[in-house]
Amino acid sequence: MKRTGTLAKAATVLSVSALALTGCGGGDSASADGDVELRFAWWGSDTRHEQTQEIIDAFEEQNPGITITGEYGDFSGYWDKLATQTASNDAPDIIQMDDKYIREYADNGALLDLSDVDVSELEEDVVESGRTEEGLFGVATGVNVMAIMANPSIYEEAGVELPDDSTWTWEDYSDVAAEIAEKSEAYGASGPNEPAGFQIWLRQQGKEMTTPEGELGFEEADATQYLALQKKLVDDGALPPASVLTEDQSPGPDQSLSGTNGAAMGMWWTNQLSALNAASGNQLVPLRFPSSDGSEGGAQLFQKSAMFMSASARTEHPEEVKAFIDFMVNSEEAGKINLADRGLPANETVREAVLPELSESDTAAAEFVEEVQPELGDPTPIPPLGFSTLQEIIYRYELDVAFERSSPEDAARSMMSEMESAIR
User: Fold this and answer.
1) Helices first, then strands: H and E counts in the chain
2) What is d(CA 201, CA 279) in angstroms, rounded to the nearest whole number?
3) Res 30: pLDDT
4) 240 closest CA partner among 277, 266, 270
5) Sign for the pseudo-dihedral over CA of 102, 105, 109, 113
6) For residues 268 and 125, is the Cβ–Cβ distance under 8 A?
7) Mean pLDDT over each residue of the chain, to the nearest integer
8) How many percent of the chain have pLDDT more than 70?
9) pLDDT category of residue 18 using cuts at 50, 70 and 90
10) Most distant CA pair in the chain: distance in Å?
11) 210-226, pLDDT tens digit by residue?
12) Between β-strands 285-287 and 131-132, what pairing exists: parallel, antiparallel or unpaired?
């Protein structure tokens, strides 16, 4: 997700909560007449809240005797609340989960094994993205790809043509963004969306941020080069000054430079395109990332599970929880309500049913995901324990370099040390 600021240190909280697993249930209950009451927590926009309630209503109509209460908020506060609930043995029954956190919760015994949920209509790589050595702890709702979202109206204002995104390089990206900043009232681009920005750049160097064994997959020299690239983009006028970058690390689509027409380009997941268009009043265009060598397919993008449906290991009603997750992921009815808000549907049959129903924005995002499929590199390794803290670490050192409080070399050394400690 986009720029969340300081993330909750959920692993610390969860290590305590794991000791409480033998305690009472997670706040769910059955009423006196035997009806089951479940709690479902998710983050997202007002549109997602409304759509999710429609899905809940449809499920309850088909499953009399099951009542689901929604608990929702924005992304930044969601994880603090969930970690606290989990530590106090009060986790929701059904949990919308992100890949940065799934191992932290799963490895601490906080999630229910969903191995018997039907995933036959999902690609194997998508299924595996929610699996650890101990079981399946998240079922993907959909897939998305990180893209450069370009605002054609700002390009037109600056008199600059949209780039050929199949062969452009980071130097081209810098030149285009700097020219737009010079010739328009907007910045050429907003800052990187981490950790995906760093991940994609590393993949272009033939490396990954983390390995399947849970270690860092790059060297200090790589981190130095990446931080130097970000500093050069600021110095060249392609990115805003450090003071502006600081403010743009936390807003969602509606408050961001992209959503407020403050920047011609921004790094976003494809499922966020509709929200960006609604906020900006323009039809943004998804582009491939620049590459290091300008080769076709050199961007080394990867497909990500947009989010997962997970469940509390403490739920007193595991079968009813699994039934709802099955409905959310495998039901065409739920798919036509969700559309592409939780990613392009991971279930292939649901995806085919949903595609004709998509808005212009979501259709553009879906077409981009389909277009880049042949160019995608290998799936990224499942994030290790502690991965959720890496975003904040990367952002902090990028700002240190941008503010010239540290050199790229010194920042890279300290950044790697913190990252290594975080995932041990």
Assistant:
1) 17, 11
2) 28
3) 52
4) 266
5) negative
6) no
7) 91
8) 92
9) very low
10) 69
11) 998 999 999 999 999 99
12) unpaired
Q: Which residues neighbour 243 within 8 Å (Cβ) at sequence distance 6 or greater?
A: none
Q: What is the pLDDT of residues 414-423, one digit of tens each?
A: 999 999 999 9
CA distance 95 to 309: 6
pLDDT value of residue 8 = 39
The amino acid that residue 105 corresponds to is Y
Predicted confidence at residue 351, as pLDDT, reads: 96
Rounded CA separation 348/329 (Å): 10
DSSP notation for 370-424: HHHGGG--SPPPPPPTTGGGHHHHHHHHHHHHHTTSS-HHHHHHHHHHHHHHHT-
- 285: CB partners within 8 A, 6+ apart: 149, 150, 151, 152, 162, 364
Each residue of 360-399: pLDDT tens digit? 999 999 999 999 999 998 888 889 989 989 999 999 999 9
CB 384 within 8 A of CB 214: yes
Residue 127 dihedral angles phi and psi, to the nearest 5°: -60, -45
Spatial contact of 290 and 169, defined as CB atoms under 8 Å apart: yes
Peptide bond into 345 cis (omega under 30): no
List residues bridging with 41 in a β-sheet.
71, 95
Q: What is the 3-state secondary structure (H, E, C) of 23-82?
A: CCCCCCEECCCCCEEEEEEEECCHHHHHHHHHHHHHHHHHCCCEEEEEEEECHHHHHHHH
Rg (CA), the chain: 21
Q: How far is CA 350 from CA 76, 141, 257, 334, 381, in A?
A: 30, 11, 33, 9, 26
> Residue 309 and residue 51: Cα distance in Å, rounded?
15
3 state DSSP class of 256: coil
In sequence order, what are the beta bridge partners of 135?
A: 132
- In whole angstroms, give the CA distance from residue 89 to residue 7: 21
Query: Which residue type sits at 243?
Result: S
Structure tokens at 309: 């449906």
- Tokens representing 354 are 């949903």
pLDDT, tens only, 246-283: 999 877 888 899 999 999 999 999 989 998 999 999 99
Extract the tokens encoding 361. Answer: 């924005």
Q: What is the pLDDT of residue 19?
A: 36
| Cα–Cα distance, 247 to 5 (Å, whole number) | 10
